[in-house]
Structures are given as structure tokens and as C-alpha cells.
Write a structure and sequence with these properties.
Aldehyde Oxidoreductase, domain 4; 22 helices; 804 residues; globular; single chain; 3 domains; disordered N terminus
């Protein structure tokens, strides 16, 4: 057995170096002699045929060493789901910002001149720049997907009350602080060493090998840490490593590519925009009896992860609510924008936005409090605890979460206060909303649900851990270090998590879907458990031998036989590991409590007895089984659940929003690190809040992105954080399905941002009530920017302006 040695709120393992400014990211690596700068020639057109590429002038510029085009690739296409996206455009460009050529140069000045000197001749073609245009042209990625339960159409037709509408959800930029970056070092025998800001080192390794015609064992990909990822570096980091590798191979020199923020935003995909048409039937109490929804997702020019994103949106269209008759249809559209990709929450936020918006509409239609409608429809056992895809909810605490937050945030009294406040026309309208999240944790593609870890225990009792997880600020290394330290009863400082490398752990899954700790932490515990059993078996035998006869005392003399621990270490029947205690850096047998030796001494004994203290661990989630063809089965290992109440004030003159107060209550099981979990909840919520309020992407009529810098794309600042911001974690230790009873914290809290979005809609409802004496359903796109809010507050004024 081992006892908890690490404080629940130990600092992030890079906290000190982050504050000192000494943490090393890709572009912080020393610039080597002869190393080349890499830049990209981009298409200015959303769709065009390439007639010719002339690199002559560029190659004549002093300092330009190479210009690479598609003709220099050994393999042209990549793609996680469909292998259809070219690394470099071949005959046609399909979005503004698509990469046409790669330039390698000695200096930045020569690089910029070389990029400008590459001549590309185009023939313009008509682009598809909206979901409606894609539907009209039947421009799709893959076929329709269905998830169905009961008889949604027939039940809707006979429902006492009905609503139908369209929800428009726009995209969002990841805006990680470290832009896409990679450095490639050509080594002897054709080996390529890649340092990449990637969430998926294995995929980056494989794609570099394919593009260059190498074997996978000739490419090593290393990711020490990322300056943020949020899904934007899951698939889309790999091509930039390929571009640097092309230059490195062509010149035999190290090659470095680091995008500017403008380049990064222009080239890379965003959160998928969605357009959702729905019909909902309900009774006079607000209980939903039927939902029929058609989800259209804008996938951009190529598939990337959009089909999987659509799937998760469909799986989360119920969110926290039981709907007996439900049909959800999903279709990804192909347009001429960047290939949209993973973003924190994947497709989940789109599905949750749908149902949380619908519930608000039902409350308005029936003149009810939306919280009462949510509580009425909330999942609860035993006959209302199965999702529309057939997975039974285990450990469901949603009713408890609703009740506890309703009381702790004083919801009812505040609602009464708002009723009074909003009667005064001089007051800016305020709104209040309490929403929920039920977020499924696992990849819905089964083979991805596996993790790897390598542990080396050194003779001084310190430990190095290498896993497939990538640290990108979320604290996965800190969590894994704590798990391993606790296995051996050691202080946290004894464990060091090393840079993620395909040389140490191959065939890894991406650090995504909030599974980094679940998969790789569990794998590390598997490896630690194997070593621990061997050490425990050794300790048991040492208690039977006089101290002066131990191998460490007689090493080199060969006078004592070695201790064998094979059978005891492999079989739980042969040896009770709980008979040995690992705590506070010491190890002892319960039968001999006076014989306590340092962990390091036991490791030395293992070495002198030729017992291995290095081990590899592999973990897989065993009981997942979601059938993608029928839309049924167990899609997730478990659900992270939470609720949030937000109160906002909407400036009726400018449309600006102030979030006055937010209370969050999350069920995260038994936290590995409480402080890191609270930090993840806060960060995810604020990121989501930015998406639903201020983060608007603007494109011109040619499909070119206009908002590609901090000056034109508004992420939340410190001034946008709720004035009163409270986060609590529910003490719930019932998650027996995951490592140490924990639950994922990375993505689920983001979906609580809809408390802010619906609070804005509530404020607009109040505004309409005092102006017109009635409250109408408020159609509000995401994001609810100041402009869209003003349109809702003063529709007649905007209508008059548009008529001029």
C-alpha cells in the first residue's frame, strides 16, 4: 500500500520557470549555425485553379536556399479521417491562406523577399462561402449521420405546444499564445529530429515520414511543452513540421518555422460554425416530449476532424436533459474556408447551445422560470437516466448540482430583485441564467482510448516518467507526477516528467478529448505498479535475511545468492502487496514495522539483485462500444457534470455586456490536484464566455479573413472576468470508472458559458417586457456581440438604417 504524500494543491510543475521567463518553448531553442528560416507562400484566393508556379526569381535572391512545391513531396495528402488535404496545393487552391510553396532562407529579410518573389498564376473559380450555399450545391463532407430514439416526428405533430427555429453558431479562433512552430534537425543516416508545438507527436512523426518518404523509425518527434493548444494543434501542427522537414532535407541544414499571429490565424482552421434547424414539442409544464434537429456544420475546404466534431455535437444535443423522443441528424458541409478543426469541447458546445437555448425559449413561451424548466427535464433515475444513444447515466449528480447551486447562489431572491430592477427604464437591463453541462469523457473512436508510459527509477530513489501526454498548460505533467509519487509514497520532487517523445513512447493518441491524464496517468500507474510489486516482493524477502547479508553489503564478493522475485511480483495470489507499506520515502513490511528503509536503499538492493526497476505501462479503456452506424451504445467512460449561474448587465445604449457575477459548481470526482482543477474550470469558462460574447470572425466577400490579429479579434481581458466569480467543486467520490476516482476538468466547464449567453437573452427579454409589455423569444446568434445585442434591443432602428 502507499499513502498520499503530495498536497492536493501542489503548484504546476512549470510554475516557477513560467514566472521567471525561463520555460523553453520551440522558438526558445538556440539558433544553430547554418539554421534556416522557413516561410510560406499562401493563396490569396478562396478558390482558384493553379496555372503555373515560377520560383526562378525567388531562387535568385541572395540568401534564399530553396523553394519547395508539391513536386518535392514523396506523399501529397494527409488527413486524420479522410486522407484528402494536400500538404502543398497541387492543381487548385480551396481557401484563402492555403499553402502553395515553402521557402527556406538564411535571414528573415531574404525569406520575406523570397516569398514575395514566387510567382503563382491563378484562374479564379466560384467559391462556396456559406452553409446555405453548400446545401444548395450539395457540397458535403461525408454523408448524413443519425441518432434516434422514439418517434420524434409523430410526437411533435401531436404536442400541446410547439416551437421551431434556427440557431446560428459562428466559429472561433484558438488564440494560443505560442503560434504554430517547428524545428527540424537533419541527423546522420537520414534521421530527422522534429521539435514541434503539437498535441499529437505520433501523427506529426508519421506525416513527416510519409511526406519525405522515410520510415517512421527515421523520424523522432519531441514536444516539451506547448504555449496553449485548445485543439488547434491536434491535427494542424503536423503540416508545419512537414514544411520545415522539406527545407531541412533539401539543404541538409536545420530549419525553423514560426508563424506570426496573422499567418497562424489566416492559415489554420477554427471552431466549426454551425447552423441548426429544430422543432421541439412540449407540454404546459415545460417538459420536452419531442426534439427534431438538423445540424449543419461548416467543415471548411477539407474534412480534418469535422465528421467527428459533428458526431460529438449530436451526442451532446441532450446535454443534461432527458428527451423521450428525439431525432438528431448531422451533415458536414464543404466550403472554401480553412479546414475547421478541434477546439476545446470539440462538437459538444454546439449540441449544448442548441438545447440550452431551446429551454430558455420554452420558458419564455410558457412564462416560466427557465431554471424550473431545466430541473423538470433534468436526467434523474430510474426511468429518466438513459441518453438518446442508449447509454445509461452512472453516478448522476445533476439534480443535486441544480439544487445546491440554486441555494448557494441565492437564485430565487436574485430573480425577484431583477424583476424589480428591470421595471425601471433608466436601468440597464439585467439577466440571470442557471445552466448545466453533462460532458462525455472519452474519444468516440475506440482505438484512440489508450495510453503509454515509461518509468525509470534511479538508484537515488528519484524517478523519470515519460508518457504520450503533451503538457500545454493544463497541468497533465503535474497530475501524472503526483500519481506516480503517490504510488511509491514519495514526495513530488522525487518524480520528473520528461518531454514527450516518440522515441520513448510510440503510437500514442493525441492529448485531446480531456483524456490526457485519464489515459496516460493510468498507463503510468500500470508501469509504476509493476515496479512496485517487484520492490514489495523484494522487501518481503529482505525481512527474512540479516542486514549484513543484503546484496548491497556483499556486492562484488559474490558470496550470497541473488534474491528472485519473479512469481511473487507477477501474481497477486502469490504475494499480498498490501503487506508492504510505501510512505514518506520509506518502505517497510507490516510484519516488521521496525525495519524501515529508505526507498532509495530498496532500489539499490534491487539493482544489486539484478531486479529491473524500469517498466513500460499500457492502458486501454475496456468497456466502450459506440456503434457509429446505428448511433447507439456506450460512447463515453463517464460524464463530467456541472452547473453555473451568471448575472449580466446589458448596456442599452452600446450593447456592451458586463458579467456581474458567476457561480460555478462542478463535479470532478476526487481531484488529483484541486488548484489545477479550479484553474481549468476558470480558464475554460472564460474562454467559452469570450466565444459567446466578443470573439467574432469577419471574412470579406472573397473569403479572406479580416480579423487575424489581436487588434481585430477580441478575446476576453481581465476587465471581462465576472466581477464576482466563485468556483466550488462538489465532493463526490463515486467515479469508480477512472484513475483514482478523478474526473476530467479541461473541456466540460467551457460549456457553462451558456449561462452568460442565456443571461444576455434574459436581459433582452426583460427589455422587451418593459418596452412592449410582452416577452418574445429572443433569437440570438453566437457570439452575442454588442452589435447583435443592439439589433435585438432596437430592431426597428436597425431596420430603418438598412433601408437607407
Amino acid at each position: 500500500m502507499s499513502k498520499l504524500e503530495t498536497p492536493l494543491s501542489a503548484p504546476h510543475d512549470s510554475a516557477v520557470t513560467h514566472v521567471q521567463g525561463t520555460s523553453e518553448f520551440v522558438d526558445d531553442r538556440a539558433f544553430l549555425y547554418g539554421e534556416l528560416h522557413v516561410g510560406l507562400v499562401l493563396s490569396p484566393h478562396a478558390r482558384a485553379r493553379i496555372l503555373a508556379i515560377d520560383t526562378t526569381r525567388a531562387l535568385g535572391i541572395p540568401g534564399v536556399e530553396t523553394v519547395q512545391t508539391h513536386q518535392d513531396l514523396s506523399h501529397h495528402y494527409w488527413g486524420t479521417i479522410f486522407t484528402e488535404q494536400p500538404f502543398l496545393a497541387i492543381d487548385e487552391v480551396k481557401y484563402a491562406g492555403e499553402v502553395v510553396a515553402v521557402v527556406g532562407a538564411v535571414t528573415r529579410k531574404a525569406l520575406i523577399q523570397g516569398i514575395r518573389a514566387v510567382q503563382v498564376d491563378y484562374e479564379l473559380l466560384p467559391p462556396i462561402l456559406s452553409v446555405d450555399e453548400a446545401i444548395a450545391a450539395k457540397s458535403y463532407i461525408g454523408g448524413e449521420r443519425f441518432i434516434k430514439r422514439g418517434e420524434a416526428e409523430a410526437t411533435y405533430a401531436n404536442a400541446p405546444f410547439k416551437l421551431e427555429g434556427r440557431q446560428v453558431i459562428r466559429g472561433a479562433e484558438h488564440f494560443y499564445l505560442e503560434n504554430q512552430a517547428a524545428i527540424v534537425y537533419p541527423k546522420e543516416d537520414g534521421l530527422m529530429e522534429v521539435h514541434s508545438s503539437t498535441q499529437h507527436p505520433t501523427e506529426t512523426q508519421h506525416l513527416v515520414a510519409e511526406a519525405l518518404g522515410l520510415q517512421q523509425n527515421e523520424v523522432i518527434c519531441i514536444a516539451k511543452r506547448l504555449g496553449g493548444g485548445f485543439g488547434g494543434k491536434e491535427t494542424q501542427a503536423a503540416p508545419f513540421a512537414v514544411y520545415a522537414a522539406l527545407v531541412a532535407r533539401a539543404t541538409g541544414k536545420p530549419a525553423r518555422i514560426v508563424l506570426s499571429k496573422d499567418e497562424d490565424m489566416i492559415i489554420t482552421g477554427k471552431r466549426n460554425p454551425f447552423q441548426i434547424d429544430y422543432k421541439v414539442g412540449f407540454d404546459g409544464l415545460g417538459q420536452i416530449i419531442a426534439l427534431d434537429a438538423k445540424l449543419y456544420g461548416d467543415g471548411g475546404a477539407y474534412a480534418d476532424l469535422s465528421p467527428a466534431i459533428m458526431e460529438r455535437a449530436m451526442l451532446h444535443s441532450d446535454n443534461a436533459y432527458f428527451i423521450p423522443n428525439m431525432r438528431v441528424v448531422g451533415q458536414v458541409c464543404r466550403t472554401n474556408y480553412h479546414s475547421h478543426t478541434a477546439f476545446r469541447g470539440f462538437g459538444g458546445p454546439k449540441g449544448v447551445a442548441l438545447i440550452e437555448g431551446i429551454i430558455e425559449d420554452i420558458a419564455i413561451a410558457l412564462n416560466l422560470d427557465a431554471l424550473d424548466v431545466r430541473k423538470l427535464n433534468c436526467y434523474r433515475g430510474p426511468d429518466r437516466d438513459v441518453t438518446h444513444y442508449g447509454q445509461k447515466l452512472e453516478n448522476n449528480v445533476l439534480p443535486q448540482l441544480f439544487d445546491e447551486l440554486e441555494q448557494s447562489c441565492d437564485y430565487r431572491a436574485r430573480r425577484e430583485a431583477l424583476n424589480v430592477w428591470n421595471q425601471n427604464p433608466r436601468n440597464h437591463p439585467r439577466g440571470l441564467s442557471l445552466t448545466a453541462v453533462k460532458f462525455g469523457i472519452s474519444f468516440t473512436t475506440r482505438f484512440l482510448n489508450q495510453g503509454n508510459a515509461l518509468i525509470n527509477v534511479h538508484r537515488d530513489g528519484t524517478i523519470q516518467v515519460s508518457t504520450g501526454a503533451v503538457e500545454m498548460g493544463q497541468g497533465v505533467n503535474s497530475r501524472i507526477a503526483r500519481l506516480v509519487a503517490d504510488e511509491f509514497g514519495l514526495p513530488l520532487r522525487s518524480v520528473k516528467v520528461m518531454a514527450t517523445s516518440t522515441e520513448k513512447n510510440a503510437n500514442t493518441s493525441p492529448t485531446a478529448a480531456s483524456t490526457g491524464t485519464d489515459l496516460n496517468g493510468a498507463a503510468a500507474c500500470v508501469a509504476a505498479g509493476k515496479i512496485k510489486r517487484r520492490l514489495a516482493a523484494l522487501m518481503q524477502k529482505l525481512t527474512e535475511i540479516p542486514l549484513d547479508k543484503w546484496a548491497s553489503k556483499t556486492a562484488g564478493f559474490g558470496t550470497m545468492p541473488e534474491i528472485e522475485v519473479g512469481a511473487e511480483a507477477e501474481s497477486s495470489d502469490a504475494f499480498d502487496i498490501d503487506a508492504i507499506v510505501f510512505e514518506s520515502g520509506l518502505v517497510y513490511a507490516k510484519s516488521h514495522p521496525d525495519l524501515r528503509i529508505p526507498f532509495s536503499a530498496l532500489v539499490s538492493e534491487a539493482y544489486f539483485n539484478r531486479i529491473s526497476v524500469s517498466e513500460y505501462g499500457h492502458y486501454k479503456i475496456a468497456d466502450l462500444g459506440f456503434n457509429k452506424l446505428t448511433g447507439e451504445g456506450r460512447a463515453f467512460l463517464y460524464f463530467s457534470q456541472g452547473v453555473a449561474a451568471s448575472e449580466v448587465e446589458v448596456n442599452q445604449i452600446t450593447g456592451e455586456v458586463k458579467v456581474l457575477r458567476t457561480d460555478i459548481l462542478m463535479d470532478l470526482g476526487r481531484p488529483i490536484n484541486h488548484a489545477l482543477d479550479v484553474g481549468q474550470v476558470a480558464g475554460a469558462f472564460i474562454q467559452g464566455m469570450g466565444w459567446v460574447t466578443t470573439e467574432a470572425l469577419f471574412y470579406n466577400a472573397k473569403g479572406q479573413l479580416l480579423s487575424h490579429a489581436p487588434s481585430t479579434y477580441k478575446i476576453p481581458s481581465v476587465h471581462d472576468i465576472p466581477r464576482n466569480f466563485k468556483i466550488d467543486l462538489l465532493e463526490n467520490h463515486g467515479n469508480h470508472r477512472n484513475i483514482k476516482g478523478t474526473k476530467a476538468a479541461g473541456e466540460p466547464p467551457l460549456l457553462l458559458c451558456f449561462s452568460v449567453w442565456n443571461a444576455i437573452r434574459d436581459a433582452i427579454r426583460y427589455h422587451g417586457l418593459r418596452r412592449h409589455g410582452r416577452a418574445d423569444v429572443v433569437a440570438m446568434p453566437i457570439p452575442a456581440t454588442a452589435e447583435t445585442i443592439l439589433r435585438a434591443l432596437k430592431p426597428e432602428a436597425f431596420a430603418a438604417c438598412e433601408g437607407l
